[in-house]
Amino acid sequence: MEDRYLSLWTYNLETLLAEKLETIMSRGTANTRMRDFYDIHILLSQKQPDETTFRAAFQATSRKRNAEGKIPDLEKILNAVKKSEAMDRSWENYKNSSYFVENLSWTQVMESVLQLAEKIV
Fold it and tell me: pTM for this one?
């Protein structure tokens, strides 16, 4: 056994969720990263973020990525994403190619995303 140490950098839940939600907000209906939607749903099903920490992380992420101007339109953007037939089709394709998604519907996933966004709006 060697006598050495490994240092790992990790993100807290709030920062991870903030980065995923900011990506969804910024890409809107042009988003092809279905994994972000899935990750938000799964993470929220396991643990709820601290709201104050999450809001601060979302603001910081949006500022760093020059997306602060989109925050007032977050709810509108997410509703457009939810209603998009193209996004629904992309979700179905992702679901069919990802066994772990099982029977999770686009509506269920978007409800989780909208629930997370309520902590911002």
Answer: 0.91
Burial tier of 4 (Cβ tally within 10 Å: 0-12, 13-18, 19+): exposed
Going by the DSSP 8-state scheme, the letter that residue 113 receives in this structure is H
Q: How far is CA 121 from CA 11, 25, 28, 102, in A?
A: 23, 13, 17, 31
DSSP code of 102?
A: T
36-94: pLDDT as tens digits: 999 999 999 999 999 999 999 999 999 999 999 999 999 999 999 999 999 999 999 99
**Sign of the dihedral through C-alpha 113, 115, 117, 119:** negative
